[in-house]
């Protein structure tokens, strides 16, 4: 069986960092994820608001580097929770338990830390044609045997 989700969207609020009684970090936040199609009537894209929970180091990372409006890529699994409300009614909710959270946009101006900047690519090497060489010279065709 496979339970794997990858989402890309913007945080609808700052992550809320809490700690369990045993000291384990847990962060909760919500992502606004646009659908691929537009509404026929309004012409606007529909948006899903998805609850996400992150634990331990991922929770610490999210609460330190992500804020409302920031684009995030979340990898995780779908978790369904059954619970009883204050009136005794049975309720069900779905949330994504994040295994990894990545930056979905480039580093914002004035921000520091938390993102990785890829080093500049080395300058291309010119393997040009030697002076005086014919660019479209015929290759010698030996006896046709393969060299191995």
SSE diagram, text form:
Blueprint: E1 5-11, E2 16-19, E3 25-38, E4 45-55, H1 56-65, E5 71-84, E6 90-103
Parallel strand pairs: 4-6
Antiparallel strand pairs: 1-3, 1-5, 2-3, 3-4, 5-6
Show unreliable segments.
Answer: none
Overall shape: it is elongated
Q: Within the CATH hierarchy, at the fold level, what is the topology of the domain at 5-103?
A: OB fold (Dihydrolipoamide Acetyltransferase, E2P)
Give the termini distance in whole angstroms: 46 Å
What would CATH call the class of the domain at 5-103?
Mainly Beta
**What is the percentage of strand-forming residues?**
35-45%
Radius of gyration: 26 Å
Task: Sketch the major β-sheet.
Answer: 5 strands, mixed, barrel
- Briefly note the structural class of the backbone: mainly beta
| Number of helices, counting only DSSP H or I runs of 4 residues or more | 1
CATH superfamily of the domain at 5-103, by name, is Nucleic acid-binding proteins
Tell me what the CATH architecture of the domain at 5-103 is: Beta Barrel
Mean of all residue-level pLDDT scores: 83
Number of strands: 6
């Amino acid at each position: 069986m496979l339970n794997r989700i990858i989402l890309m969207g913007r945080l609808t609020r700052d992550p809320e960092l809490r700690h369990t009684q045993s000291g384990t970090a847990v962060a909760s936040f919500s992502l606004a994820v646009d659908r691929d199609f537009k509404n026929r009537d309004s012409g606007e894209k529909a948006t899903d608001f998805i609850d996400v929970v992150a634990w331990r180091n991922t929770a610490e990372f999210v609460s330190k580097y992500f804020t409302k409006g920031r684009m995030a890529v979340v990898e995780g699994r779908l978790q369904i929770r059954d619970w009883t409300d204050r009136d005794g009614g049975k309720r069900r909710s779905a949330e994504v338990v994040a295994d990894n959270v990545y930056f979905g946009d480039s580093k914002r101006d004035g921000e520091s830390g938390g993102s990785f900047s890829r080093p500049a690519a080395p300058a291309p090497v010119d393997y040009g044609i030697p002076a005086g060489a014919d660019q479209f010279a015929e290759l010698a065709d030996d006896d046709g045997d393969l060299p191995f």
